[in-house]
Amino acid sequence: MLENEALALLSSVWRLGDVEDVERLVATVAGRAGLGADEDAIAYLFEVVWRAWRRYEPGRAAFSTLAYRACQRGAVDYRRKRDGRTRWRFGDGRVFERTLPVVASFDRLDEPLPARDGDPALDCDPDLGRLLAAGGGSLARDYNALGLESPGRAAG
Prior knowledge:
By secondary structure, this protein is mainly alpha-helical. The chain contains 6 helices and 2 strands; from the N terminus they run ααααββαα. It has 2 domains: 77 residues, no CATH class; 34 residues, no CATH class. Helix 2 crosses helix 4 and helix 3 crosses helix 4.
């Protein structure tokens, strides 16, 4: 494809099946998914719609329905790839959520990290803090501090 043809294609309205404006569809889904005008997300969602078009079987459903759903799933996939997954829902109704890790960039070493007092016993989980404060010692005491039964103790 010549460069002029590629530019003409990029500057025109892109139609696929019954979707009159693929860019508007992608922008709508990206906006609703909280991706805004992230160019990488928009490009990713365009690819998702194109792949959906390649798999489309006329007569099963309107392409606009398939494209919209594929775009929604693509937005979730994009956010998970970019940000990591934070919520898991299980079939029995349980939900597990985790906070995203905070990564310190080595590109900006002149900026101070958030202040901590440096005491590992205070900067961690309270149960782990008790174990660290107690120092080395007995494995049985460690289990006791956590409220667990020591594996060496016979159940009676």
